[in-house]
Amino acid sequence: MSENDLSRQYQDLYTLIKSGGKIALQLVSTTMWLSINTALFVLSCGSLIRWRPTQSQRNNPQSVKKSEESKLEVNPEDNNGKVPRTPSRATMIDLLENHEVSRKLSWAMRTRESEDVIVVPSLSLPRTELEKVPGALNYEERLLCYLFYLVNPKLKLVYATSMPIEKSIIDYYLALLEQSSLITVEEAKKRLLLISCNDSCLTPLSSKLLRRPKLLQKIKNFIDPKKAYVCCYISSNLERKLALELGVPLFANDPSLSYWGTKSGSREVFERSGVLFPKGSSLLYSIEELSQTIAKIYTEENYEISQFIVKLDVGFSGRGNSIIKTKYFDKNNLLESIKVALSQHLEFTCEGEDWESFVEKVKVHGVIVEVWVDDAISSPSCQAIINPKGVVEILSTHEQMLDGMIYKGCIFPAKPEYRTILIENAFKIGKVLAEKGCRERFAIDFVVKKENEGYTIFAIEINVRWGGTSHPMMTAKYLTSAELSQDGVLVGCDDQNKYYVATDAIQNDVYTGLTPTCFIDFINSHPDLQFDSENLTGVVFHLFSTISEFGNFGFVAIANSPEEASELYDSTVRILEEEATEVSAKKHFAELDMNIIHPSN
C-alpha cells in the first residue's frame, strides 16, 4: 500500500471516527483497523499524528528546486576584522558543525526528525531598555508556540522561564495541539519538561539558569546531548555559556557576530549585498559628529530633505529611534541651528527618553542618522533562517502594524505587488550574513515607496534574533500543518492558502485582576474566540500572564483569505472590547483608607 493510498484511507477513517466516536469504531472491521493502525504506527515512528500532504507536496515532492540551489550557495566565513573568531565561538561552531542537527535538510519546513529542543526565551537585553516595557518578564511566554513542535512524536521539548507558567496556559496550548493532531495532551506532556527559576527580577533568564546547577542537571537528565540544541530569543554570551554548560549547540547567531544586527552593521551588510537603502551615516559617538553629518547630507541633497531619523545603534522594536525635522534648521547658520534643533526638538519614539539620557547613550552605544523616506506606503518585513550548513531559507513576509515606529502587530503575507522583491533581497542579505558566520533566524525591515508604475524598496535594518512576527508564523504553520510556497504563501494541509493578522498589543486596564485561567475560561466559552481544527481557521491567544497586572495580551487571527483574516481580527477586537466594557461595569474599585477613627467620649 502506497503512502498516498494509506493517507486517503486514514483520512476517511479519521473523519468517520470524529463523526461517530465509539459507534464508528465498532463499524470498522478489526482486520482493517489493525492493518491501518500498524502502518501508521511505523510511518509515524510510534505515535499517531495527523498527516495530510498538500496538493503541492503531492505534485512536487522536491522541497527545493535545482534552479533555486545556486542562489542559496554561500562562501566560507568572511573573516572581517571587526568580528574576530573568539575561542568560545570557535568551540560552539565546531560543536554545531559536528552535531546531528547539522544533518537536518531543512529548518524552514516541518520535519519528523528525532531531536531535543531546549527553549530559553531569555530577554538578554540592557535592564534600562527592559524597564521601559511593561511586564517585560512575561514576554518569555511568547515562545510558547514551540509547544506545537510536540506534534513531532520523536521530539522532546524543554521550556525554561524565570517564573512558573500557570497550568491553564500550558493546557490551552496543548489542547490546541491535540485538536489539530492525534497527539494527546497526556502523550505530549511526557515529552515536555517545564523549568522555572522562581526568580522575578529582570536579570536575564540565562544568567538565572547558570546560577542553578541543579536545574541544569535536570535538563541534562531529560535530553539526549547527541540530538539536542538550545534555541533562544536573542543570543548573548550568557546563552552561549549556557549551551556550553549543557554540552549542546546553540542554534543562534553567535554573540561575537551581533554587530551585524546593529543599525550600523545592517548598513554595511546592505551595501555589500547590493540592496537599496536610505542615504545615511556610519556609526557616530558625539552630538558634534551627528550634527556635522546631518549638515553634510542636508547640503548634498540640496536642502530637499524634510526630516532625518536618528537611531541608537542597539535600539530594538523601534525603541531608540527619534526624528528631527529640518524645518528647525537655518541654512545661514546650519551647523549651530542643527545642534539647537537636536537639543530642543528631537522627537523620541519611546516614553521616558529625554535629551540628557539620549546624549549619554550616544557616547556609550553610538548612533547613526538616515534620510527619512517620504511618502512611504508601507513597512513590510521578511524573515529567514540560515541553517547550520549556511543555507538561507525563507520563513515569511509580513506587513508590519506600527504605532509611529513602535511595532504593534503584523499581517501575513506582505502584499503580492512587492513580495517577490522582499524575498529576493532577503536571499542577498542572508548570503552576506552567512558568509560572515551568522546562523539561525534573521529579519529585515523595509519601507516601500510607490513611484510611477512600480515600487521602490528600501532596506532599513536587520535583526539577528527572534522578532514579533516569529511566533505568529510558527502558530499558524503548525496548527494548519502548512508549508510556505515559492511565492511566499502558507498552504495548509487542507490545500487552502492561510492568512493571518496578529498583535501583541491588545491592552485595556479593565482586564487587570483577571487571572489567565479566568481569561481562558472566557475564551473557551465563546465560539468566535477559538481555533477550529476542522476548518483550520480561528483565533489563538498568547501572552496570558500580562493580563492580570497590565491588562495586555495578544492573538493571531487565521483565515483562508486576507479579507477573512482582517474581518476575524476586527471582530475579535470588538468582542474583547465589549467584554472589557462589561467587566468594567461589574468591577468595584476600593482605595486604601488609613484614617484612624477615634471612639467618641
Strand content: 15-25%
Tell me what the CATH architecture of the domain at 105-256 is.
3-Layer(aba) Sandwich
Mass-distribution shape? globular
CATH topology descriptor of the domain at 105-256:
Rossmann fold
**Category by helix and strand content:** alpha+beta
Query: Helix coverage percent of residues?
Result: 25-40%
Low-confidence stretches: 1-59, 61-82
C-alpha-based Rg, rounded = 26 Å
* Total strand segments: 20
End-to-end Cα distance, whole Å, is 97 Å
GO molecular function, one term: metal ion binding
Organism: Blepharisma stoltei
Biased composition (Polar residues): 54-64
Protein name: ATP-grasp domain-containing protein
Walk me through this protein's architecture.
This protein is of the alpha+beta class and 601 residues long. Among the domains are: 3-62, no CATH class; 105-256, Rossmann fold; 279-371, Dna Ligase, domain 1 (2-Layer Sandwich); 373-464, ATP-grasp fold, B domain (D-amino Acid Aminotransferase, Chain A, domain 1, 2-Layer Sandwich), CATH 3.30.470. Helix content is 38%, strand content 21%. It has 20 helices and 20 strands. It has helices at residues 3-27, 30-43, 55-59, 66-72, 87-97, 127-130, 167-179, 185-190, 205-210, 213-222, 237-246, 263-273, 287-300, 334-345, 355-365, 416-435, 470-479, 516-525, 547-550, 562-586; strands at residues 115-120, 155-161, 192-196, 228-232, 307-316, 319-325, 347-348, 367-371, 376-378, 380-386, 392-403, 406-412, 440-451, 454-463, 483-484, 490-491, 497-507, 531-532, 537-542, 552-559. Strands 9, 10, 11, 12, 13, 14, 15, 16, 17, 18, 19 and 20 form a twelve-stranded antiparallel beta sheet that branches. The protein has a four-stranded parallel beta sheet with strand order 3-2-1-4. Strands 7-6-5-8 form a four-stranded antiparallel beta sheet. Strand 15 and strand 16 form a beta hairpin. Helix 12 crosses helix 16 (416-435) and helix 13 (287-300) packs across helix 14 (334-345). The relative contact order is 0.11. Residues 54-64 have a biased composition (Polar residues). This is ATP-grasp domain-containing protein. InterPro entries: ATP-grasp (IPR011761), ATP-grasp_IQCH (IPR056855), IQCH (IPR038752), PGM1_C (IPR041356).
